[in-house]
Amino acid sequence: MDRFPNAADVDFHSPLDLSKAAAAVLDAEGNISGWGASAQRLLGHSPEDVLGKPAGRLLAAGPGQRLSALCRTHKPRSAVLDLSCRDGRTMRAAVTFSPLDHLGFAATVVVAAELETLRGWEAQLAMLQGLATESTVGLTIFDTDMRVVWGNVSTDLELAGIADYIGRPAADLFPEGEFISRHHPPDEDQIMEHVMTTGEPIMGMHYRGRAPADPVREHVWSCSYHRLVDARGELLGLFEESLDITERYRAQERLSLLVRAGKRIGASLDVRRTAAELADVAVPQLADEVLVDLPPAVIEGRQPPTGSAPGHSLLRMHGRTPEEFRTSPVSYPPSSPQAQSLGTGRLVVDDSPPEAARGERAAASHSCLFVPLLTRNTVLGLATFRRTSNPDPFGPEEQTLAVELAERAAVGIDNARRYTSQHAAALVLQRSLLPQHLPEQSAVDVAYRYLPADSRVGVGGDWFDLIPLSGARVGLTVGDVVGHGMHAAATMGRLRATVRTLALLDLDPAELLTRLDSLVAQDAEPHGNDGLSDVALGVTCLYAIYNPVSGRCSWASAGHPPPIVADASGSVALSALAPGPPLGLGGLPYENVDLNLSSGSVVAFFTDGVVEDRRTDIDSGIDRLAHVLTWQRCPLEELCDRALSARPPGPQADDATLLLVRTRRLDADRVADLELPPDPAMVAHARTVAERQLENWGLSELSFTAELVVSELVTNSIRYATGPVMLRLIKDRSLLCEVSDNAHTAPHLRRARRDDEGGRGLFLVAQMSQRWGTRYTSSGKTIWAELAIP
To answer: I need a surface site. Which of 95, 112, 391, 515 has the fewest CB within 10 A?
Structure first.
């Protein structure tokens, strides 16, 4: 199928050509002696109608006086005449009269064509002449061997003379050029061969190179290729159209660069990365090199200095990744363009820059732009755009583009600086709220690790704690506040303090979580607008109590992963009990889980950041941690390092908190139990037993104080209890005296009046002991006191 159905209408033959024009012959008297078929087609008159008759009869303007004059001329003449058609129409025609008297007889050949058709043909000729001599579109004709045949004036100017390239292959025109459009073969010979073979034109190919007339600057052309055939359809070669679109191409590149900058610059919330992103975007499209200089305060997340001399105490950014990042000091004298840009907050152009500043690698720059990194009327630093290989100076559009890029980078750097400041403050807050060191105690050996999340995410709300309890027991807790930032850290601090307070009331784990759940639910009520209540709705917590006397561990969980236990033999056990609901949701009750642990067992308490990330699920992470615990005979510090190094590499989205404890059991000879009937006479017996036990432990110097404490505690229990009283003495880091009975009411410390006969016992106990208190059990209560061992 013909791809150009109207191609037959495009005819560059002259309408006065004998093959197309109306032709007739006039004798010496002006009569028509010859009448061609083309004349009949043009005017409609048949030969029988006109032969032998005066030609003047064909004129629409009456007698043929003017026609006679044209016939008597001795050289060709042309005129515009109105001719009468057979159908009654009048046609304005261009008529040429050519005398034949030089051939020995008097006759005139007349050739006529419709005037409008002739004017259209003349316009086509003018157009072709304009393309050849005046058009900015380069036209080049190649023969079938792809050698230059002809080029118009535009091509002649680009090549600095087309004559030197006639007969040479196309590759000689721009030997260092290249096609930058990739939707066709990038080789020009392949493109020409394709066009000549298939007849399919290739249009809009972008070509970049240096023209012989301007060898120092790169240009971009839009090139199109078309096949050339003659009237018989024989292949003559092809021609190329080329239009210099350098400025338009650069404008499009500037626009795409801005789009790319909007997507990339400032997306990292990291000052170093933002500086590197500016260089990545601008090189090499805008500049050959981009340098970013910032004050140390901005890099560290602090406010930029004000009032200091411009150009002093700056650090130059190096490296594209945090691993490669380094800085080098740089300083600019007050008279330098850099200091001028920093001082005025405006762009400074230097097309003949001086030698590089001291400490820099010398670079022969053709042109430099010094652009201040300005945001919120504050200068954060300086961006330098350099051209070393590109000889073109920065034009007005490129200067505007550099300022736009610097503004985007300044916003990104300022956001990163503010984020760094807030992140550092949140990290300081979080670390200040976490235990700085764990208290010494005899129940467990402890090791822990806390790793904050990747800096892009921010600190989270993980916490852990170890709380010494009465009776040589220890409370262990880990928790997690969903979310990151200052709110999560502040909520974590409040909850950790609340857990510690409730733990010192000697509540069992389930009761402690129940009370904590009520407090969190109250905080979550929509009565405040401090931003903490929403965070508190996503809180998980696990609390456990370990008793080194009995080896019993009780724990309860509020939506938190249960602990993993590895016994002394290395076998690992996972809890089958599902955790209760997270804090603040209410609903299901919390349940205690009781475990009997042998001495040397390792228990792992952890947050989900240890076992879960974006690439693996929590079950895989728990299996990974359980496998590490099979090495439970290793030191706890080594186990912590093994557990955290087993996590998948890369940035972490959540804080990771790991608390490992290795249980101990108190030796039987360090615990003494005595059951006493509820008889006041047993008080003296209790004192005697206590004195004897202290002597066995080598604590005779505590005998007086201990006997007094035992006497008062046993006396109170016998007075108010209805069953037997149990006295327990424990030698630990301090001397522990515990008296248990079946009463559920606890005595209260009060100040006795002078005339009171009693009420001074607990006051004396409080004065002589380090700590004292009451804890409730399922069968009653225990009153305890701790005495410091000298």
So the answer is: 391
DSSP run (H or E) holding 423: helix 396-433
For position 261, what pLDDT does the model report?
84
What gap in Å lies between CA 766 and CA 752, rounded to an integer? 14
CB 750 within 8 A of CB 739: no
Residue-wise pLDDT for 386-439, tens only, equals 988 877 888 888 899 999 999 999 999 998 888 888 777 777 776 776 777 788
- Which two tokens mark 78? 């042309």
State how far the Cα of 470 lies from the Cα of 775, in Å rounded to an integer.
8
| Residue 521 pLDDT greater than 80, yes or no | yes
Q: Quote the strand ranges of 245-365, DSSP E.
A: 289-294, 314-318, 326-330, 348-350
Chain length of the chain: 790
CB 450 within 8 A of CB 656: yes
> Do the beta carbons of residue 725 and residue 745 sit within 8 Å?
no
Q: Phi and psi (nearest 5°) for 65?
A: -60, -45
* Sheet of strand 90-99: strand arrangement: 32-35, 22-27, 107-114, 90-99, 77-84
In the DSSP assignment, the letter for residue 342 is H
If phi > 0 it is left, if psi is from -120 to 50 it is alpha, else beta; for residue 519 that is alpha
Is 315:294 a contact under the CB 8 Å cutoff?
yes
Question: What tokens appear for 245 in the block?
Answer: 């679109």
CA distance 787 to 712: 14
Q: Strand 326-330 vs strand 461-468: parallel, antiparallel, or unpaired?
A: unpaired
Token pair, residue 619, equals 């079950």
How far apart are alpha carbons 685 and 693 in whole angstroms?
12
DSSP string, 464-495: EEEEE-GGG-EEEEEEEESS-SHHHHHHHHHH
Whether 688 has a pLDDT exceeding 60, the answer reads yes
Reply yes or no: is the peptide bond before residue 284 cis, omega within 30 of 0.
yes
CA nearest to 409, candidates 284, 294, 314: 294
DSSP state of 212: T
pLDDT confidence of residue 65: 54
pLDDT in tens, 572-588: 888 767 788 898 887 78
Residue with tokens 């004129």: 59
Q: Which two tokens stand for residue 683?
A: 């008080």
- Residue 9 DSSP one-character state: G
Q: Where are the beta strands (DSSP E) in 530-609?
A: 539-547, 552-558, 564-566, 572-574, 593-596, 602-606
How far is Cα 275 from Cα 415, in angstroms, rounded to an integer? 13
Average pLDDT over residues 64-68: 62
Which pair of tokens denotes residue 466?
């170890």
| Pairing state between β 539-547 and 552-558 | antiparallel
Helix (H) or strand (E) holding 693: helix 682-696
CA distance linking residue 145 with residue 279, whole number of Å: 46
| Greater model confidence, 474 or 128 | 474
pLDDT at 4 over 50: no
Give the integer Cα–Cα distance in Å for 422 and 487: 11
Phi, psi of 404 (to 5 degrees): -65, -45
Peptide bond into 54 cis (omega under 30): no
DSSP H/E element including 523:
helix 509-523
For the chain, the distance separating the N- and C-terminal CA atoms, rounded to the nearest angstrom, is 112
AA letter at 595: L
Determine phi and psi for 534, rounding to 5 degrees: -65, -35
Angle at 63 between CA 57 and CA 69, to 5 degrees: 100
Rg of the chain over all Cα atoms, to the nearest angstrom: 51
Q: Say how far apart CA 298 and CA 321 lie, in whole Å.
A: 18
The structure's pTM equals: 0.60
Q: Beta strand pairing status for 289-294 and 378-387?
A: antiparallel
- Please tell me the predicted confidence (pLDDT) of residue 454: 61
CA dihedral 349, 354, 355, 358 (to 10 degrees): -70
Query: CA 490, CA 52: separation in Å to the nearest integer?
Result: 119
